Amino acid sequence: MNLLEVLLVTCLLSTCLGEDGGGRVWKTVPRRPYLKNDFESTPLQIQTDSRLGDTVYIEVYPVVDQYSIQISNIRESSTFIVLTAPGIQSDFIINHFNLTGPIHEWKISKDNKYSKFKISCDGIEKIYDFPSSDQDTWKRQVDEIKFMPFDTATSRYKDSNWTWQDLAQVRLPNRLSLYPIEFKTNDASSARQYTHITLYTADFKAETKVDIQWDNDDYQFWIDQCNRCDGGQSYAQTRFTNVPGDIEQTWKLELSPSQLDIHCNGVKVYSYVYNNPQYSNSACIGCTAQMNMQFEYFEFNEANDKAAVEYLTPPQCTGLPESWAGVKMEPELPLPYNTRVSVSCADGYNKTSGDSEVVCLGEENFGFNSQPVCRKDCSDDKKDDDKDDDKDHDKDDDKDKDDDKDKDDDDDDKQDHGKDGGGSKMLYLGIGLGAGFVVGSLIGLVLYLVKAKCSRSAGRSNAGASYVVKNNKANVYS
To answer: Which residue has the higher pLDDT, 422 or 238?
Structure first.
């Protein structure tokens, strides 16, 4: 194979396939399309998965204005339906849906003639009358709909051909304290560009927004609730001055306990210090608490982000922590980030405590509530020790036979050499006692080493916290 062929193979195995090492892959930023649907001739059909989230959020676009339909609390027996239009909000509560299991199919339609909404779940239908004072709003003709980023539960929808399509999940898993967010922009125009990223905790109940915007070479930066916590600078004053002028740019947001570092094409363009004791006003205290949250997801905001084109996925799980002796996983490694994995123990080990499932957090990091512990089964060692004892006893029997033979020989010698018999008898007795002491000591040493081996194995099984990420709770992955 010549040099050109070697380079080609290397390219195919790594860069040309978009991989960045450790299973990290460049992917297109997910966007959710607008769907043609009038809610009348064709009802909207969707499938929800409560393991993803508990909210359906759909914006409906009539010719004149827009309103939204929200289905909340899908995990519970009481599911809330919220219909919202500019200046109008109507809340309904459904109590009769039997929402057992995570997967449900919904149909949503409306009847303008009779001023009614129809919403069904798993074949059970509920009809809602349009509020009498707002009927003109709800009767407007629908042109298209859009699943909003707040929609965390919808997994699939039926298109115009009545074919199920997967809905793009726009909230992307990435533990920011472990791996930086990396993305690419392609600024081929001179118009104002935005990158708007929202960071989420695992339960999606807390969030932080990070904005980068630029107009030609004028770059500005902003963090939600933190724009006056870095020397008192406002949004308009926080600027980058050393951004590389390339059309295609690769950005990296790297979070530490005290600051957020921003890189562009390998150049650090800004360090936003949010945990500086110098700035101790109330706004900064709130900013510090916000930025110290455990961010597990991020999202490119579809309404404001027009520049991001690709993002880098977090790495795969490629191995177990060294302290997890005897732990076995199904499916086997390597595994994609955020995969839920079943845990058991390998042959020769017994599971003594810990979760039966963990979540892959990349490389040798896993999320869990209680660390899985597998201890070595010492009963196998005991069987081996018993076999060794039997061998030792056999050796002792053989030695006793030899001693008896030696005794007979001593008697013969005594008869032949009477005057030297007393001294020889004492000599042989001393040798026999010494040999017995050595054999007994060896057996005791073997038993001690076996016990120490089991103790060390148990100790290793309980020492795993240092190999697993800080704040490794995984109760939010449900």
So the answer is: 238
Residue 105 pLDDT class (50, 70, 90 cuts):
very high
* Residue 338: strand, helix, or coil: coil
Label residue 220 exposed, middle or buried (CB < 10 Å: 0-12, 13-18, 19+). middle
76 phi and psi, to 5 degrees?
Answer: -105, 170
* Cα(215)–Cα(243) distance, integer angstroms: 13
| Paired strand residues for 252 | 182, 263
Report the chain's mean pLDDT, rounded to a whole number: 74
CB 45 within 8 A of CB 158: yes
Q: For the chain, first and last CA: distance in Å?
A: 50
What single-letter DSSP state applies at residue 30?
Answer: P
Rg (C-alpha) for the chain, rounded Å, is: 36
Amino acid at the residue 324: W
Please tell me what DSSP assigns to residue 10: H
Q: Is 331 exposed, middle or buried (0-12, 13-18, 19+ CB in 10 A)?
A: exposed
Q: What is the mean pLDDT of residues 167-187?
A: 91
Cα three-residue angle 313-317-322, rounded to 5 degrees? 145
Cα–Cα distance between 472 and 226 in angstroms, integer?
27
Beta strands in 227-317 (DSSP E): 239-240, 248-255, 259-264, 267-273, 295-300, 308-312
CA-to-CA distance for 458 and 373, rounded, in angstroms? 9
The maximal CA–CA distance of the chain, rounded, in angstroms, is: 133
Instruction: Please state the length of the chain.
Output: 478
The two structure tokens encoding residue 281: 């006003």
The neighbour count for residue 436, using CB atoms within 10 Å, is 13
